Hints:
Number of helices: 14
Order of helices and strands: EHEHEHEEHHHHHHHEEHEHEHEEHEEEE
Oligomer: single chain
CATH class of the domain at 3-162: Alpha Beta
Distance between the termini: 35 Å
Amino acid sequence: MGAVFVSYRRSDSQGEAGRLFDDLVKHFGEHMVFMDVAGIEAGRDFRKAIEESVAKCGVLLVVVGPEWLNAKDERGARRLDDPADFVRIETAAALRRDIPVIPVLVRAARMPSAEHLPEGLKELAYRNCIELTHARWRSDIQLLIDALRRLLGVSSQAGTRVGANAATAAAQRTQQEATELSKREDGSSARIDPAALQQVSRELALRIGPIADIVVKRAASRCNSVEDLYLKVAEEIDSPADRQEFLLKRAPVPLIPLADVAGATTAAKNTSGPMGSLPLSEGRAAPLKTASPATGTRLSSRWKYLLLASTGGAFLILMLVLGIRFFPSKEPAPSQAPQTSPQETHQESVPVTTGTPPPPAEASAPATRATDESEPRSPRRVRVPQEVSRELLITTILPVYPPLARQAHVQGTVVLDADISKDGIVEKLTTISGHPMLIPAAVDAVKQWRYKPYVLKGEPVAVNTQIIVNFTLSGG
Length: 476
């Protein structure tokens, strides 16, 4: 009975591969799951070492993300075209030995076609894939685990026992690591505020998506401060510009040693003047100890810069108030004030829940921004629900069921996000979900659909909506 080998590209799907590895270990145990080629002796041919590792496995999982096919190296060349690429060697070795290879699609990635794959990997295009989505992760993982049990010959009872033992061992290791990390070199314990963890997760999710929560929780167990946590999770951001922006925009949430809180509070009571405490990002006041030879080095230079910035900001505000007080600006006479009608009021577009335009604003509503009559402002694209867009549909082209999907008995639903012009023409389609075999047929058909113009305030406007295309095989 072979193991499960997880092949992935770090720059493409490291977070999802780690999450997949953890779930597989819970069900099959650590001795049954292999993810990284490590421990290759110096001077040994790494290609042979990889082939030997792949030869021991019973199934190879190829984690395919959005950049798996076209990932570039430092010279700008495609990595898959390099015969020494680890992912290419792992996948080609399994295909050459006729080991079951399952493509695992993550983050809405699509199956690569044979003409886009190098020699030795073309067979991958004809292997049936499994998609793992963030919203349906548990159910998708269960389907994958059921398939692996059949391929590896593991019964559900045995898998349950192995998973329970692995979960118990993992819990013991986690508890031990938490106990060790809770003690610092000076014997006092430290913690990172839960609010800071949530804040880091939200900021990181803007760069790498929903997997950020798992990445932050894992990194927090190995960090002793928020600054360390920011630096650790920033390694998951591929773009150097995004990584730099993420580090520059991080909020200063300092680490509060629990053992020092009581002593710091006492010192704060003896400190006079406005410098006795500094505000935290959560709105609390963190007491500062009076500087002494033993504690003077603990004052971070960041607080010095923060103090200088606060003083400069207060000075600028004071100068602004004095300028307004002694040099008031001239206001236009009442007779020259522009009259703003409700029709000229600028309103942000909101999602429309019915097929009729929203009612005009009341005359008593205050005007926030007026537009010049000589330069009329074109309305923005509005969001309409599926029910409204369905009523506007005048031409429908049924999709052609893909022969390969019909032979594989693949059926399901494809959900598309559509931008429709004010003339009723489908301008842009973005795939939200669906089986890779069915998506191209759905997109080709929906591109030919035509709609009646959606009228808002007497004028046709462009809209955005969601389209669902169902693929069902008749007769089972």
